[in-house]
Amino acid sequence: MKNRVADLAICGGPPAFKETLHVGRPNIGDRDALLKSFNQILDNRWLTNNGPFVQEFEAKAAELIGVKHCIAMCNATVALEIVIRAIGLTGEVIVPSFTFIATAHALQWQEITPVFCDIDPHTHTIDPRKIERLITPKTTGIIGVHLWGRPCAITELTEIGERRNLKLIFDAAHAFGCSHKGRMIGNFGEAEVFSFHATKFINAFEGGMVTTNNDELAAKIRLMKNFGFGGYDNVVHIGTNGKMNEVCAAMGLSSIEGMDQVIAANRRNYKQYQKDLADLPGISLIRYDEAEKSNYQYIVLEIDGTVAGISRDQLMKMLHAENIFARRYFYPGCHRMEPYRSYFPHAGLLLPETEKLCDRILILPTGTAIDEGDIKTICGIIRTAIDYSDSIQNI
Ligand SMILES: Cc1ncc(COP(=O)(O)O)c(C=O)c1O
Question: Residue 390 C-alpha to ligand 1 middle, in angstroms?
């Protein structure tokens, strides 16, 4: 344990970890079963184009979510682009700025303007009270993001969408295995999009999935992700290549098989962090609703530098020196990254909560790659940094 300031790596002590601890280190499921699946894929000589593993992955996900249609794709970004196009969004679409850049890019890529809305500081998700002032005659939709796997204000967004005649979709990249009012995420809005990128708690190496209960929309999305092919030699729609391949689907299936264990590990880690950080001034850990299903895949700290005596960036620098690669998701906010920063140089005026949060958030490692001892060490370092904040102010 690093109890003295001189022990900290930033003050010259040895790093706490020899190997870097990463946020989003991939969870690897049952290796033998996975390798068996890869052999099966090679034996099948069916590598992509809606093969048996993709079909099984879609069926398993549909059963888990309780939704009519699951459409597996190569990644969530392309899946978002396809959904946006399939439901006919144009002009302007309201999105939070506090999200991964792909949410905004999926719109701008198709020359639709993302109009950035502020977040509710208590939930970190789009603030429904601030949406209506952003609606113009060009607005066609809203994209809510279930950040950290915590559902955004689904009820309020649905009400606004219906009243103002706007289409509503959800970026559910973080929210596989999570529920809202007892119903699984994946059932809301016109459609929802999940990510199975390697950093997500369950992964398909790279992968995405669209879910919807709308038969017509599902059929259209299936066409669009496969170049618009309606059958052999028959293209009936404009399309692109959004297909998931068999190897990714096998990894996705293996991830789903092991999902309960990964969630249990994430929850255990979360509880340990909660215990070890409980009495630290200026540090708060976001909460997950115990009455709902959550995947606990993010350990999200909010740091109030004036109370902790150390800023988020100082703390991050200190942790990096210890080989704990904490991350500032989603700093500095989409509106302060290109091309949006140049397009809307004054967007920040309407995003005070987003900008405040961007300076306070720090994500810590979790998942099956770390254990209780690692967490105790990480929290001990944070405690020492706060206890001796005066001494490390200028390092
Ligand atoms: C909120 C959010 N949306 C979209 C994406 C894009 O997902 P993918 O990497 O599968 O394209 C991510 C990925 O990290 C994300 O965090």
Answer: 38
